[in-house]
Every structure is written in structure tokens, then in C-alpha cells.
Specification:
Length: 289
């Protein structure tokens, strides 16, 4: 199998790349930065076609997006070009080449009023990010056999990433205070486990929408406290705040989170508990000290 990972330099793309290598899947990764990757700009039809011509993939994993939620609110046209129009271009190339498409979506397709949400729950995004990601999801699902993976609060030990856990580690090391929302509920999801579940779904021929998230529904402050416990950090540097106190530009789905019953039914398992994943990161932190 030949896999094309769009966004291989990112957190999820990197986890997918590493796992594909371990599973002996021939993998081609893309990035707008180059640096050993195929160049691909989701806003450019030509670069999308060129990457497909070079990789000739059987499987396409679309993990690239404009994920800065407030940035999307400031630049809605850029958000639509990358998050909606770009996936439509990828889906069209998959249609032409017969490639299996996996699109990484988000819990932000929901308004966060009555989560956690199952796959069939009515969508109602409240931000530009959520709306454009939903457009991208719909464009990809119009392709027969496509798989849309909704996930959220993805974390890992990735020094190049700004995921929540890396922000927490950086703040602690710098002796800086960290303001953490105490009213945003989601399911923290460990990137390596997300990658494994997605490739397992592909092996089983899964299609349609699947929620692939960790089993623990927590607010960000609760998540931060669990991380501090796993890492041996004094949590005094954490400041729990209501979202309304943080001055964030884009609305957030507060009572969100995703149910993973469908995933468990297909794979016969859920992702590991958040404490287990945090312990793995704690081991890595000691190795890098």
C-alpha cells in the first residue's frame, strides 16, 4: 500500500507517518515547508495534482488544516480556502485515482450545548473554523468509501507542536502562569493512539463518520491537573478561568466531547485512558531531561 499523508509535518501527520513506517506501509508526506516532504498547498489545485502524481497513493490521509480557531475568525477566506476548498480538491483527485480518503474532522462541527455527541447528532458549528471544517468534511464524504474522523484536543510529546500538553510543559519550565479554561469539556486524545485507531479502521474498510477520541471527558483544567500529576509538576502555576474571561475571539463549544461507541463496536476497543497516555509522555520527558 502507498499512503499519502497531507500535513505530515504536523502532530497527527507525524504520528501517522511513524506508524505507517512501522507497519511497512510505503508513505509519502507533504508539507508547505518542504524540508524533505513533498510540497503541497491546499489552496493550490496545481500543487495538489502534482503531489498525487508523484505519490500515486492508494490511501490519502488528510491531516492538514488551518487549525488556529481565532485565526480562522480573523481570516475567514483563508480558512475556507484551506479547510473547505482544499479538501474538495483532494477528494476530486482521490475520485480520479481511486484512492481511499481519510479526512480528519473536529468536534467543533457541534455547538457544544449538549455534548458528548455521537456521530449522527445534528451539527451546528458556532465558529468559522467549525463551519469550514464541516464544509471540508461534507466535500470528502461525497466521495464513496471516504472516512471522516472527528477528533479533539489531540496531544503528544512533540516539541515542534503547540498542543495543550506542550504548552503546559513550556509554561511550567518557564515558571509562567497558565490560564486554563475550566468550562470547556472535551475528550483529550493521544496522537499515537489516534493514528493507530485510524489505520485499523482503514484496514477494516470503515467509511462514513467515526469519532476517534480518548474515553475521558474532562474540562481543560481537569486535564491540566491530571498532566501535572503524571509529570510531577506542582499545579500552582495553573489558573482556572471561565472561557468568558479569556478574551478569545471565536466562540467555543463548551459542553462538547464525542462518544466513541461506534469506534468500540468496529475495533472491539476504545482508546486508552488519559492517565495511561500521560504516563507515556512522563517517560519521554525524563528521557529528554
Amino acid at each position: 500500500m502507498r499512503a499519502l499523508i497531507i500535513g505530515a509535518s504536523g502532530q497527527v501527520g507525524g504520528a501517522l507517518s511513524s506508524l505507517c513506517v512501522r507497519r511497512r506501509i510505503e508513505v509519502y508526506g507533504t508539507s508547505r515547508a518542504g524540508q524533505g516532504f513533498l510540497y503541497l498547498d491546499l489552496g493550490s489545485p496545481e500543487s495538489v495534482k502534482d503531489a498525487f502524481a508523484k505519490a500515486r497513493p492508494d490511501l490519502v490521509l488528510l491531516a492538514s488544516a488551518f487549525t488556529n480557531v481565532d485565526g480562522c475568525e480573523r481570516e475567514p477566506e483563508r480558512a475556507r480556502r484551506i479547510n473547505a476548498e482544499g479538501p474538495a480538491l483532494v477528494a476530486e483527485e482521490c475520485r480520479k485515482t481511486g484512492s481511499k480518503l481519510v479526512y480528519f474532522s473536529t468536534e467543533y462541527v457541534f455547538d457544544g450545548k449538549d455534548g458528548p455527541y455521537a456521530e449522527e447528532a445534528p451539527v451546528n458549528p458556532v465558529s468559522v473554523y467549525g463551519r469550514t471544517k464541516l464544509e471540508g468534511e461534507k466535500a470528502c464524504l461525497a466521495l464513496p468509501g471516504a472516512l471522516a474522523v472527528r477528533t479533539t484536543v489531540v496531544f503528544s510529546h512533540d516539541p515542534d507542536s503547540k498542543n495543550f500538553i506542550m504548552q503546559l510543559i513550556s509554561s511550567h519550565r518557564a515558571g509562567a502562569r497558565m490560564r486554563v479554561p475550566s468550562d470547556q469539556y472535551s475528550n483529550p486524545t493521544y496522537a499515537p493512539e489516534l493514528a493507530a485507531a485510524v489505520l485499523d479502521l482503514v484496514e477494516k474498510g470503515a467509511s462514513g463518520v467515526y469519532n476517534v477520541v480518548g474515553p475521558d471527558r474532562l474540562n481543560r483544567y481537569e486535564f491540566a491537573l491530571k498532566a501535572c500529576g503524571a509529570f510531577g509538576f506542582d499545579p500552582a502555576f495553573l489558573e482556572p478561568k471561565l472561557t468568558s474571561e479569556l478574551g478569545q475571539l471565536a466562540p467555543r463549544p463548551l459542553s462538547a466531547g464525542l462518544r466513541s461507541d461506534k469506534l468500540a463496536g468496529t475495533l472491539g476497543r476504545r482508546l486508552p485512558p488519559v492517565e495511561e497516555s500521560l504516563r507515556k509522555i512522563a517517560v519521554l520527558l525524563k528521557q529528554y531531561e
